[in-house]
Amino acid sequence: MNTVVYPGSFDPCTNGHLDIIARAARLFDRVVVAVLVNNAKTPLFSAEERVDLLTEALKDYDNVEVHSFSGLLVDFMKKVNANIIIKGIRALSDYEYEFQMALTNNALAPEIETLFIPASKDYMFLSSSLVKEVAKYGGTLTGLVPDCLISVINERCKER
Ligand code: PNS
């Protein structure tokens, strides 16, 4: 079975993330979405909440699972028996950091490769930070995040 891991912060997940997951789910047998538990940042949603939001948004996919992880990504990859990392690339500016992470992961675990999927043109501009900013100032999230998550994201951004 060909398992790939799609890691990220997903705070919150956007339609851009979901587009990459949908495309990976067509290409591979099993897609594991890996939500980083990052204690250094103060996230909008806890890791458990981010897992729940992604699980809700991805409930129609039979071959997609959502987990959280802390520590090194390569260690999590071993736990789920995967050696391919999927990353989305929106613009050339993403590439430098993503390339650095891909080489670091490959240096830590040479059997692990990173595959880049270019963002769809509809989502090239989209990021979790932009979603939070739009919600904070009362803009519409329609088209930016899954419809089923709009109210929960709006409510959380209003509380902040
Ligand atoms: O959505 P993000 O914040 O760009 O995702 C970054 C992520 C989670 C892929 C990256 O920070 C990560 O893999 N962190 C785990 C720690 C790790 O393995 N670091 C070494 C390789 S960069």
Derived from helix and strand composition plus strand pairing, the structural class reads: alpha/beta
Mean pLDDT: 96
Portion in helices: 40-55%
Number of helices: 6
In percent, how much strand structure appears in the residues? 15-25%
Structure keywords:
binds 4'-phosphopantetheine; 6 helices; 5 strands; Rossmann fold; 160 residues; alpha/beta; 5-stranded parallel β-sheet; single chain
Overview of the molecule:
The chain has 160 residues and is an alpha/beta fold. It has a single domain, classed as Rossmann fold (3-Layer(aba) Sandwich). 42% of the residues lie in helices and 19% in strands. It is built from 6 helices and 5 strands. A 5-stranded parallel sheet has the order 3-2-1-4-5, sandwiched between helices. It is globular, with a radius of gyration of 15 Å. The mean pLDDT is 96. The chain binds 4'-phosphopantetheine. 4'-phosphopantetheine binds at residues 7-9, 36, 72-73, 101, 104-105.
Briefly say what this structure is:
This protein is an alpha/beta fold and 160 residues long. Helices cover 42% and strands 19% of the residues.
Topology:
Blueprint: E1 3-8, H1 15-27, E2 30-36, H2 47-57, E3 64-69, H3 73-79, E4 84-89, H4 92-108, E5 113-118, H5 128-136, H6 150-159
Parallel strand pairs: 1-2, 1-4, 2-3, 4-5
This protein binds 4'-phosphopantetheine.
4'-phosphopantetheine binds next to β1 and α4.
